[in-house]
Amino acid sequence: MSNYHIKNFPEYFHIYRNSVRNPELFWEEIAEEHFLWREKWNKVVSWDFSKPEIKWYEGAKLNITENCIDRHLYTNGDKTAIIFEPNNPDEGALHISYKELHERVNKMANVLKSYGIKKGDRVCIYLPMIPELAVSLLACARIGAIHSVVFAGFSSTALSTRINDSDCKMVLTSDGSYRGTKSIELKSIVDEALENCPCVETVLVVERTNTPITLKSGRDFLIAPLLDAASNDCEPEIMDAEDPLFILYTSGSTGKPKGMVHTTAGYMVYTAYTFKNVFQYIKGDVYWCTADIGWITGHSYIVYGPLANGATTVLFEGVPNYPNYGRFWEIVEKHKVNQFYTAPTAIRALAKEGVEFVDHYDLSSIKILGTVGEPINEEAWHWYDDNIGKKKAPIVDTWWQTETGGVMITPIPFSTPTKPTYATLPFLGIQPVLMDDAGNEITGNQVDGKLCIKYPWPSIARTIWGDHQRFKETYFSTFKNMYFTGDGALRDEVGYYRITGRVDDVIIVSGHNLGTAPIEDAINEHPAVSESAIVGFPHDIKGNALYGYVTLKETGESRDHDNLRKEINQIITEQIGPIAKLDKIQFTDALPKTRSGKIMRRILRKIASNDMSNLGDTSTLLNPEVVQDIIDNVL
Ligand code: PRX
Hints:
Blueprint: H1 9-21, H2 23-34, E1 43-48, E2 53-58, E3 61-62, H3 64-76, E4 80-85, E5 94-97, H4 98-114, E6 122-126, H5 131-143, E7 146-149, H6 156-165, E8 170-174, E9 177-179, E10 182-184, H7 186-194, E11 202-206, E12 220-222, H8 224-229, E13 239-240, E14 244-250, E15 258-263, H9 264-278, E16 286-289, H10 296-308, E17 312-316, H11 327-335, E18 339-342, H12 344-352, H13 356-359, E19 368-372, H14 378-388, E20 395-398, E21 432-435, E22 441-442, E23 447-453, E24 463-464, H15 468-476, E25 483-491, E26 497-502, E27 506-509, E28 512-515, H16 516-524, E29 529-539, E30 543-552, H17 561-575, E31 584-587, H18 601-608, H19 625-632
Parallel strand pairs: 4-17, 6-7, 6-8, 7-14, 8-11, 11-12, 16-17, 16-18, 18-19, 19-20, 30-31
Antiparallel strand pairs: 1-2, 3-13, 4-5, 9-10, 14-15, 15-24, 21-22, 21-23, 23-25, 25-26, 27-28, 29-30
Helix pairs in contact: 1-2, 3-4, 3-10, 4-5, 6-7, 9-10, 12-14
Adenosine-5'-monophosphate-propyl ester (PRX) binds next to α10, β20, β25 and β26.
């Protein structure tokens, strides 16, 4: 029996038991047998959640790109590593072999080096879903630079905050990006951001849309001629196991975004191992994850996990509804996709358009379907199962987080019986627990509580860039000796987990994590606004949408509320990005507060969800009278 590739349910249980009884031995074997190391480790794991300090494979030396590219060259050099499917289907797909990927990454790495980038430097990547995006990540990893990818839908303000937080020396971007019928001028967003980023010395620009751009002399350079002139040979930098590989920002419930730091060896081992099993990838399969590389799903399961397994991974530039709502299925048919991984919000949006867009295409290549990013509702689950998988392809509902690096709770396809809306069982080596508010572990089944993990796994984030204290407070202080996920979950009668949602002030909208605090900060910048509170409410397609309660400095009917709503959403778009726009904005004379001045979001959440039952005891509020007024004017 191979621990690396689980093939049936008894095997899963057997290996799972071993993985938690003797984690060191388990993770040592996985690492030893399936990766290329320049030097072996002295210790598999050392950890102390109270500090917190977590180290995996300490003493080992490696380069992740040797594992993701070089080692496949001898046996699989001509195999397609990446299928690039452009926004416009008429442009035609591009197949990049492992050999070509090797050349492209080396050339890019040499260009970065020639602009002074060296081991440990931070490089911000603000690119659309084009091959250069994947190549940039790998080029940084090749030379030991730490990449910080910022999703190319973020605004200039959000971009500059992230660049400054990690002191990036360089930005890689493009002139523009295509999104269906639209194009977005990325370079001008970068120009605006860099007015506030003195740390950036160089900007390298990929030409994609050929929109006119300005190049600031001495700072900005087109990358194409540099790549043409660069050597395609670049020796990999030999990294320590615990050297940072990348920073990726995620929203917190308060304040500025958290730059989660992932390190090299553990991240590689865990993403590769989970990819192999969660998608049961076998040689010759074509795998497609529709996420953007700007999110952790793209890092782990478009780039690193698949490539470490020598897989063929599809990289799609466009959107699900261009040229029409059949685009995903057209791509599945065209490339004979075997594993398809997407988010519930996309499933709901496509389901709404009807099955005629699906029926047009041959989806018989599909073996496994995946979902990630938010709880999947029963209706969407069945639509996916009936119409896309034709009841033959198991659905892997994978629960995990930016912080966890890889999938944590998931069925193993063809092994674990699936159950709609349940992420089911922990992956190998993962030890989930449910905790009550008093800090006790809830044992037994048919219970619910706060989801924690009580033992480290190789790809757990190691810190928040520049703020270890915040890392400790956010994840390791709520429950002693536990990693706290911020999610609630229930465990059913057979021990399956169902994730019920966030228990903090993070709201997941269309699969994107949004903290309420930065949105409220943005709204409060409007000169007419005195105070605001954001909550989520159920939405058919987005899962949750945002509802804002806003109090104005001057009340009265004289204000043009519709115009104010537009202005508020405009500020949010500028400060964060269009993904954080509010669906509903209710103006109110005051917000319900506790006697200590804290906004009672619980009440606001219920009102926004039209759930007026059981608002709880409002009499202890500082201003109980505002509750009725808010209910009377709910949108
Ligand atoms: O609330 C959980 C939800 O998404 C959060 C993590 O978001 P992010 O860091 O952006 O990573 C998303 C992609 C890995 C979690 O705390 N979430 C993620 N997957 C699921 C989920 N909720 C329910 N079911 C899932 N399968």
